[in-house]
Design a protein that fits this description.
Family: Belongs to the VPS16 family.
Oligomer: single chain
Number of strands: 29
Organism: Oncorhynchus tshawytscha (Chinook salmon)
GO molecular function: actin binding
Number of helices: 30
Membrane topology: Peripheral membrane protein
InterPro entries: VPS16, Vps16_C, Vps16_C_sf, Vps16_N
Largest sheet: 5 strands, antiparallel
Length: 805
């Protein structure tokens, strides 16, 4: 036990420990001297901008990116402007903020991604200081210019620059400043001598920290906690003030007895800890201050940088990488000297059990008598998560497993979950990986984010193993990793297309949730069109293939794929694209080679583009369809000459198509139109009517001579004409004329009896409707014994009713 607590240092009611994470693998001759350093939180990468050892006109700074273990990830000479600040985004992209306000963004491997500017005013006045911060909106950048004005961008992915109000009396850069995030608003807290101001979008408000030492003449440094809830101020008198970030509450104030302004100051506070503490760094001194008047001091033997974390502070030096943190309460309870906590007793019981000592039974009996065995197991499991050394983890987990054997209803999930978490954490803490996550950070960041970070670092095998070990759903785990691997693979320009396409298809196989179209799109973006086409062959969904093929200008292939899919909407999409991209002749020739697409396009043109349909028929020399087109078009024309012209065109086309029947029928139609035009009495009222409709109109309007002429000229069948004449006479109630017509015409099928019945029924209906006793009597006189009985009854009732009136 003694060796575990050897590096513990008490501060108030808590203990602090410094754990070595790695011996750094980099080779820095002068350590971190003359370096601009930025390290990402959550065990992220480290960026160094190293100035040349012998400045000369040709020497350039060197930008280097390392893992947390010091493994080199990228290195290249800096060829752009002077850099004021480095910082990391939440996605582990490197931000380089230049003196002219330009922000350049690089990925983990030094590949340039994009850039943006902080505004024209910044270009003119230059950047004095800059800070990169993280907020609920994403990664932000704040700068102060030579004109003593602040500019903010709260989210670099949705850039909206905010120029904050002027600070009264401020000339040059403030003595210190920090970015605050309160109530979903981003503000700047700055000190100008002893005066404190808060800048928001519209105002500059002076504030006073409650209980600040009256000895302070100036605030020389400040630090905001990882959660933005707490604030620390360091004064020129050497006093450290700690309180809430809204400056309403004071937590403590400590006299450090060091008046030199510190190089760095960061908070060191566990999420659930009640003790506030701040780490202050000078050239050769590291000091931890808390609520009490005492402090913890560490001597630094090399240039170092402090990195604020969720549950501690990472200290990066030229030769080693350490973690300074408050010892978690579970670890204190178990490992503190002479501790009688349940977890400590269970650990001792297990050690004695492994020695086959009877003392194990005594410890267990003591724990059981206090009914705290469940608490003892929980403490050992929790403490295992806080320990960095695998051997200590195993010791605690074995003790927890030993204690579980004597519990009948202890849930296994916490123990199993911790074992899984530690296996994952130990794998990513390996030197070759270099992500020194704590269990607290791991739970905060989630497994999905950890997998993303491994993928971003191209550690695909480890990411896949973790997904399989944790049994992550395939579409969220293995498939997602493989897709990223494939997207990276297609960017390897030294490999031929065939080799890459084969490797991707073999590796991905039938993995669920992978879209080959996304991989093909990445290949196309890299200028590898042929590789993209080969990859699209593995994409089973035509709806994903076609848009990318169109984007790649492979329209013929896109049309073939759309037709193969059987999706008419997809075919229409491609055809519309081709129509807009090609000239008319090439477009029609393309469709001729694709009958399905041509047929669908014709259907579209029938409803939307009649003129285009005509051009299609002309292109194909389809005289039959052209004739049909002209006939249909003639029906829409109101003017007779236009109709006749269209019908003549139809006759010409039918003749070319050798369709005599259609040509003759169309000529008959034209003949009818010309006849209708000659009927001056009716004017153009007959135009557009069919032969039967024209005869009916003439008969009902008493143009009997014209109807007879039309009947003879167009050789209308007798039966049809007689029926039309009877119908017209009946509509006019002209029963006498109908009777004459019936007696004067000799129908070969015996129309006279039918006409008589037809006349009688019509006359009866008309007499009943008029309620004329004389007319009803006349109709009754014409009835015979064969007349319908129901009709006779109706006529008799109608006559009786008329007589009463």
């Amino acid at each position: 036990m003694a060796f575990i607590t050897a590096n513990w240092n008490p501060l108030g009611e808590a203990f602090y420990r410094k754990i070595e994470l790695y011996e750094m693998g980099w080779s820095l001759r002068d350590g971190l001297k003359e370096c601009l350093v930025a390290a990402a939180p959550y065990g992220g990468p480290i960026a160094l901008l190293r100035q040349p050892q012998r400045p000369s006109s040709s020497a350039r700074p060197q930008l280097e990116i390392y893992s947390s273990s010091g493994a080199n990830m990228a290195s290249f000479p800096w060829k752009s402007g002077p850099v004021r600040q480095l910082g990391w985004t939440v996605c582990d992209d490197l931000l380089c903020i230049q003196e002219d306000g330009t922000v350049l963004i690089y990925d983990l491997f030094g590949a340039f991604k994009r850039h943006f500017s902080m505004g024209n005013e910044v270009v003119q006045n230059q950047v004095l200081e800059a800070k990169v911060f993280h907020s609920p909106y994403g990664t932000g950048v704040a700068i102060v210019t030579g004109a003593s004005r602040f500019t903010l961008a709260t989210n670099i992915d949705d850039l909206k620059l905010r120029r904050l109000p002027e600070v009264p009396g401020l000339q040059g850069a403030p003595s210190c400043w920090a970015v605050l995030t309160q109530d979903r608003q981003t503000k700047v807290l700055l000190a100008n001598g002893a005066d404190l101001y808060i800048l928001d979008n519209t105002s500059c408000t002076p504030v006073t920290p409650p209980g600040l030492s009256p000895q302070a003449c100036s605030i020389v440094n400040m630090a905001v906690s990882f959660s933005y809830k707490y604030l620390a101020l360091f004064t020129d008198s050497g006093h450290l003030w700690m309180g809430s970030a809204n400056l309403k509450d004071k937590l403590s104030e400590v006299d450090t007895k060091v008046r030199t302004p510190p190089k760095q100051m960061v908070w060191c506070r566990r999420p659930k800890s009640q003790q506030p503490s701040v780490v202050i760094m000078w050239d050769r001194l590291l000091l931890v201050a808390g609520e009490c008047t005492d402090t913890i001091q560490y001597t630094l033997d090399e240039e170092s940088v402090c990195v604020a974390e969720l549950d501690g502070v990472r200290i990066v030096g030229g030769s080693r990488h350490e973690l300074l943190q408050e010892v978690p309460s579970a670890c204190q309870d178990i490992f503190k000297i002479a501790s009688m906590a349940p977890g400590a007793l269970l650990l001792e019981a297990h050690k004695e059990y492994e020695k086959s000592s009877q003392k194990a039974d005594e410890y267990l009996r003591e724990i059981k008598e206090q009914s705290v065995l469940g608490e003892a197991v929980r403490q050992c499991v929790e403490a295992a998560g806080y320990e960095h050394e695998p051997e200590t983890q195993k010791t605690l987990l074995r003790a927890a497993s030993f204690g579980k054997c004597f519990l009948s209803n202890y849930p296994p999930e916490p123990f199993v979950s911790m074992c899984r978490d530690l296996k994952v954490l130990n794998s990513v803490r390996e030197y070759t990986v270099g992500i020194p996550l704590t269990h607290t950070q791991y739970k905060q960041m989630t497994v999905q984010v950890l997998i993303d970070r491994l993928v971003y670092r191209k550690l695909y095998p480890l990411a896949i193993e973790i997904c399989r070990y944790l049994k992550t759903p395939e579409y969220q785990g293995v498939s997602r990793v493989l897709k990223h691997w494939a997207c990276c693979k297609v960017q390897q320009k030294e490999e031929p297309d065939e080799s890459i396409a084969h490797a991707v298809s073999v590796k991905l196989g039938e993995a669920a949730g992978i879209s080959y179209s996304e991989i093909a799109a990445r290949a196309y973006e890299c200028g590898r069109t042929e590789l993209a086409i080969k990859l699209l062959e593995f994409e089973p969904r035509s709806g994903e293939q076609v848009p990318l093929l169109l984007k790649m200008k492979r329209s013929q292939l896109a049309l073939s794929k759309a037709i193969e899919s059987g999706d008419t909407d997809l075919v229409y999409t491609v055809v519309t694209y081709l129509k807009n991209e090609m000239n008319r002749g090439d477009f029609f020739m393309t469709l001729r080679n694709q009958p399905v697409a041509l047929s669908l396009y014709r259907q579209f043109c029938k409803h939307q583009e009649q003129d285009t349909l005509k051009d299609l028929f002309n292109q194909d020399d389809d005289h039959q369809e052209l004739g049909n087109f002209y006939v249909k078009a003639s029906y829409k024309e109101k003017k007779l000459e236009a109709r006749l012209s269209l019908l003549q065109s139809a006759v010409d086309e039918y003749n070319k198509a050798k369709n005599e029947f259609a040509a003759k029928a169309t000529e008959e139609e034209m003949k009818l139109l010309r006849f209708q035009r000659r009927l001056d009495e009716k004017g153009e009222a007959l135009l557009g009517l069919s032969l039967q409709e024209t005869l009916h109109a003439l008969l009902t309007s008493n143009f009997h001579k014209q109807a007879e002429q039309l009947y003879r000229d167009f050789r209308v069948p007798d039966k049809r004409y007689w029926w039309l004449k009877l119908t017209a006479l009946a509509e006019k109630d002209d029963w006498e004329e109908m009777e004459k017509f019936a007696k004067s015409k000799k129908s070969p099928i015996g129309y006279l009896p039918f006409v008589e019945v037809f006349c009688l029924c019509g006359a009866a209906e008309a007499a009943i409707e008029r309620r004329s006793e004389g007319e009803i009597s006349t109709v009754l006189s014409r009835c015979s014994p064969t007349t319908d009985r129901a009709l006779l009854e109706r006529l008799n009732r109608a006559r009786s009713t008329a007589a009463k009136k």
